[in-house]
Amino acid sequence: MRFILNRLTSILCFTFLLSFIWINTAAAVYLPGQRNLLRIHPMLTPMHMQMKMKKHWMLHLNYMWMNMSGLLDGSQSVNNSEVFSQGFMNAPESMHTQMWMLGVMYMPNMHSSFMLMVPYLDKMMHSKKMNGKSFTTESSGFGDIAAKYSYLLYKSKHKMFHTMLGLTVPTGSITQAGKMGGKMNMRLPYPMQLGSGTVDMLLGSKFMIATKPWYFGATLSGIIRLDKNRFHYALGNEIYGAIWVHRILNKFIIAALRVDARSLGRIRGQDPNIYPKMSPAAAPLLQGGRRVDLSLTFTIHNLDKMLKGQALQIELGHPIYQHLNGPQLKATWFGILNWSVKI
Fold first, then answer.
1. Rounded mean pLDDT, 143-163
2. Mind listing the pLDDT tens digit for each residue in 193-208?
3. Where are the beta strands (DSSP E) in 156-199?
4. Which residues, in sequence order, are bridge partners of residue 50?
5. Is 250 exposed, middle or buried (0-12, 13-18, 19+ CB in 10 A)?
6. 161, 221, 248, 267 - which has most CB atoms within 10 Å?
7. Are 183 and 155 in contact (CB under 8 A)?
8. What is the rounded distance in angstroms from the CA atom of residue 7 to the CA atom of residue 13?
9. What is the SS3 assignment for 307?
């Protein structure tokens, strides 16, 4: 068993090395509001290590927000005049995305778990026209529903290793429309849509080592777009990697520091209803970027007998590296609030 564990650890480390090389070389696109899909295979916590693996249900309620402001082309800031000089009619200035997600997990035995996640998105983008007038576009509704299966390959007193396989169902709208500074309703740019329009495959793995009161872990997950949607385009494939460290502060609070790295592939094809010169956000070939985030998380649990089986997780993060095939909005801050209860 030790030989198998060492092999799995080597494979995971090697996979992470490849993923970070890919993250630093691949052209990518970041679509605000889709970040939740990259985090559906979340980091393990000390609570998972201590959990008794019995048959049970769990309910998760998750709230996420992200602010984006200012434009980047590569790692360089870009102003509106430079955007207009490239022939675009509008320049995005900021965007705010919120997401609420309901997740239900069923664990029939100590090795397997099934989870269904239903997201609801709310997006708002502020843009400026060439004449200096500002306008706002909004979209909201249910996103793509995701289902996943996780399998515990190995668990000991100090180590855990999981794998994950799942699918997303294209329940999110890709026909969101609004007035782009004019009187006519138009199909909104790709970041303002609520889903992918495709069935997507989810893959992932996660690993944790415990050396109390410290816990170290890593995760690697991705999304593979299986085909183009009915409007003849597909969002880019996505890869997400993270490493983290937990510290048990007391019997109620766990603190964690995590570094996330993500890369999202270019949009393949083009929606004929989205005019590419309307805005940089509407041009598929200009979408691209890589990002690394640093975040701090606090998990509160076992506060009272009445609250047994419940946990509250609070996270605040900020990008420490961004490289975009812009002009493209850059991320500033994001936050996550998650409540879970064992049923």
1. 92
2. 999 999 999 999 999 9
3. 159-169, 177-179, 185-187
4. none
5. exposed
6. 221
7. no
8. 10
9. helix
pTM of the model: 0.85
Task: Provide the number of structural domains found in the chain.
Answer: 1
Sign of the four-CA dihedral 33, 285, 92, 321: positive
Domain range enclosing 129: 2-342
For the residues 59-86, what does the mean pLDDT come to?
94
Contact between 254 and 247 (Cβ < 8 Å): yes
Model confidence pLDDT, tens digit, residues 275-289: 999 999 999 988 878
Contacts of 4 by beta carbon, 8 Å cutoff, 6+ apart: 154
DSSP string for 51-94: ----SEEEEEEEEEEEEEEEEEEETEEE-HHHHHHTT-SEEEEE
* C-beta atoms surrounding 47 within 10 Å: 16
Task: With cut-offs at 50, 70 and 90, classify the pLDDT of residue 44.
Answer: low
Token pair belonging to 194:
């609520």
For 234-281, write each residue's pLDDT tens digit.
Answer: 998 899 999 999 998 988 899 999 999 999 888 999 999 999 999 999
What average pLDDT does the structure give for the chain? 84
Strands 134-142 and 90-107: unpaired
Q: Which of 257-273 are b and which e, b meaning 16 or more Cβ less than 10 Å from the residue's Cβ?
A: ebbbbbbbbbbeebbee
Nearest to 171 by CA among 200, 137, 136, 195: 195
Residue 319 is part of a domain; what is its CATH number? 2.40.128.130
